[in-house]
Structure formats: structure tokens, C-alpha cells
Write a structure and sequence with these properties.
By secondary structure, the chain is of the alpha/beta class. It has ten helices and ten strands. The chain is globular and about 60 Å long.
Length: 259
């Protein structure tokens, strides 16, 4: 039985308590807003202390993983708090002591993709659409700027960050973001868990995860602090960043002044 710890996230244990299940449960958009971020952060903090746990699976209700972060929370009066909380979650995921599996169908964009990228394994459907469209709004994706170059070739990461385009499941797997492209990502993730981590020592698995991510997690943590400062102190002081966000909220074309 799922235990809803908020209006946006369902939490329960599966596989005889070996797997923590986290389900984004505010379809169809599953917006990664302050409430969603807090719920995920809390659930992961509790799970990290369970010595018998062997992994986490994040999936979603509805046809889409997430349309992204709340654009309203990106406005100048809220963006500092929003970035601090989102980046705390990303770091908690990057540092999580056990494999975090992510199952994605439909759109997985912006802050939603940043959350998915912070996990360890990603299973996607063929029709999934993954992308960082922030540049289209006149801003950039801070966490993705740190995570994408760790998950795929730099030239491909820069393509997604500068163009704002989305890629499908097959391209995500080819570029290294996704581990597998399958019709049922949730069942594929469960099968991978059952055939691997579920059979292993939880203690040994923690050391394996730490060893595999040693260096990578430190690079992400160091860079994300710099990128957050660049976003808040540089980007958000520009006319075009605020104009792009306002234009999105007002459902009109942005009027760029290149300053």
C-alpha cells in the first residue's frame, strides 16, 4: 500500500523492503516545485538510513515524467530559494549510497530531467522526450550544466544545453543518458533490480556505489555551487532572463534586447 507523504509523491517499500518506491503523483505535468522537491528530499533522507535497503525506484503517474520545474518559482523573488532546494535534492541523489533507478515515459524536461539525471540508472520508453528547454525561456539549466557532461559526451551535452531541443528514448540511450529503451520502463527497472542489487549484500552495495561515484560526486557538488552563483548573480541581473520568464507566464513571444 502506497503511503502518500504529500499531495505530489507516493512512497512505499517494495521487494520485501529492499526497494524504496517514489512515485511522482501530480499528473499530467508532475511539476518539480517546492512541494515536490521537499517530498523527494525527505523520502530519500529517510531511505538512506535504512541498512537493509538496496535501491530506489522513481517513476510517475500519468503519461509524463515531468514537464519541469515551476516557472513561477524561477522569478527573481523566488529563484534563490528554489535553486537552493533543487540543488540540495540533486546533491542528495548524486551522493545517495545506493542505486537510484528512474523510469521515464513521455516528457521529461527541465528540472524533471535534472532530477532524472541525478539518479544512477535511467530506463526510458521509445516515445520519451528528454530535454533542457531553459535556454528557450532566456535562462539556463544549472544542475543539468553539471550533470549532462558527466553522463554523455561533452559535445552532445552542449548541444542540448544550447539548443533547447528534446531527444527521444533511442537517442537518449545512444548518447548515454538512458541505460535502456523499453516499452515498460517501470518493469524493466524492477527486472534489473531483481536480477542485480536485490541479490547482493546491502553493505557491499553501498561501497560499490561509493567507489563508482568517487570523484564524479565531488565534481558535481563543486560545480553546482559555482553555477548557482552564476545564475543568481549574473543571469538574473539581465533584462532578457526576466523577460523570457515573464513572456512564458504571460503566454506571449519574448522580446529580446540582448542585455
Amino acid at each position: 500500500m502506497a503511503e502518500a507523504i504529500s499531495n505530489c509523491l507516493k512512497v512505499w517499500k517494495d521487494r520485501d523492503g529492499k526497494l524504496l518506491r517514489l512515485r511522482l503523483s501530480r499528473p499530467k505535468a508532475n511539476i518539480v516545485d517546492a512541494e515536490m522537491i521537499a517530498a523527494l528530499t525527505s523520502a530519500l533522507a529517510e531511505g538512506a538510513s535504512d541498512q537493509h535497503l538496496r535501491g530506489v525506484l522513481i517513476d510517475h503517474e500519468g503519461p509524463h515524467f515531468s514537464f519541469g520545474a515551476s516557472v513561477a518559482e524561477h522569478m527573481p523573488d523566488q529563484c534563490a530559494a528554489m535553486l537552493a532546494s533543487l540543488h540540495k535534492l540533486v546533491i542528495a541523489m548524486v551522493d545517495f549510497p545506493l542505486p537510484i533507478l528512474v523510469a521515464v515515459r513521455g516528457q521529461c524536461l527541465g528540472g524533471g530531467l535534472e532530477v532524472a539525471l541525478a539518479g544512477h540508472m535511467m530506463f526510458v520508453s521509445p516515445d520519451a522526450k528528454l530535454g533542457q528547454p531553459e535556454i528557450v525561456l532566456g535562462v539556463f539549466a544549472p544542475a543539468a550544466s553539471c550533470l549532462l557532461p558527466e553522463r554523455m559526451p561533452r559535445v552532445a551535452a552542449e548541444d542540448l544545453l544550447y539548443s533547447g531541443r528534446s531527444i527521444d528514448g533511442a537517442e537518449a540511450a545512444r548518447l548515454g543518458i538512458a541505460n535502456a529503451v523499453v516499452d515498460d520502463p517501470e518493469n524493466a527497472a524492477l527486472a534489473w533490480f531483481d536480477n542485480g542489487p536485490a541479490k547482493h549484500s546491502a553493505a557491499s552495495l553501498r561501497y560499490a556505489v561509493k567507489a563508482a561515484r568517487l570523484g564524479m560526486n565531488e565534481r558535481v557538488k563543486a560545480k553546482i555551487a559555482e553555477v548557482e552563483a552564476l545564475y543568481l548573480n549574473g543571469l538574473m541581473a539581465t533584462h532578457d532572463a526576466v523577460e523570457g520568464l515573464n513572456a512564458f507566464l504571460e503566454k506571449r513571444p519574448a522580446l529580446w534586447e540582448d542585455r
